[in-house]
Amino acid sequence: MIKPLIYKADLGIYCEAGDFYIDPHRPVARAVVTHGHADHARAGHGAVLATRETLDIMKIRYGENFAGATQAIKGAIRVGDVNVSLRPAGHVLGSAQVVIEKGGRRDVISGDYSRVANPACAPFEPVPCDLFVTEATFALPVFRHPDPVNEINRFLASVRRFPERPHIIGAYALGKAQRVIMLLRQAGYDAPIYIHGALQALCDYHIAQGIPLGDLRPATMDKAQARELREAVLIAPPSAFGAAWVQRFADPVISFASGWMQIRAHARRRGVELPLVISDHVDWPDVTRTIEEIDPEEFWITHGREEALMRWAALTQRRAQPLHLMGYEEEPE
Length: 333
Known about the structure:
24% of the residues lie in helices and 25% in strands. The chain is α/β, with parallel strands linked by helices. It folds into 2 domains: 7-142 and 281-322, Ribonuclease Z/Hydroxyacylglutathione hydrolase-like (Metallo-beta-lactamase, Chain A), CATH 3.60.15; 148-276, Rossmann fold (3-Layer(aba) Sandwich). Strand 1 and strand 2 (12-15) form a beta hairpin. The longest helix has 14 residues, at 148-161. The radius of gyration is 20 Å and the shape is globular. It starts with 6 loop residues before the first strand and ends in an 11-residue tail after the last strand.
């Protein structure tokens, strides 16, 4: 077996032949970034290589000078002694798998990824490889995510049942908020959707990239808008539920869109009346299916439920190892 092109280092996954890190958790001289979530995309690197969308998103979040230099990867480029390309990961807009090739060997670092259709980003693209690096956020047999279309239909049934109550969905600013909006639009909900100010810039960016989010309005709660919001659908970041912002609404239906909503204790702890099990990560069937489909000689596990995947690897006679990487949250931001 040819030696892998990457290995675990103090700051994350490192490619020595290209002299770069993938999603390092502290500033480095050169980083390849898989997507714009804050636990993967950090400011302060000497140089950042990523998709154009991820670079744009980092600029929105961190400002113009978030790195010393940037380069958008389109197609394969030469970095040191290796070829690097990016393939869609299906996680959020601009999310990508990092494909590293040299001398007939190919290693793929998937970042965070999903196999379920997401109208707000490009679908995951399986890449045959020698080494596949996978997340394991929901890698337990108990995690089997339902169809997000059915979850949105449950939400809209509540909107119809309680038309006098505002419905507020907690959703992360990058990816989840836009996906929920698109799911609502595809389900036929064409009324205005009111969004918290923390979502505005990233929603505007998605619209500029051709993603039709429809009629979005700021949830400012001024006197002219107060009546509208009493019967509205609103989307806000999870942090808003612990702030004065949510207290302005009388008897709201609190919802939250996350794979963790499958665990009732998580929903109760957040005070969620209507949990929506909508995840942008692979669940147990999809992570195992992906490994079987790609069929690498070996796979590594970056973070999450490592023990269950290691046991599955042993039962299916596959080579695997956990990396025990630190610095990544299981649900970003």
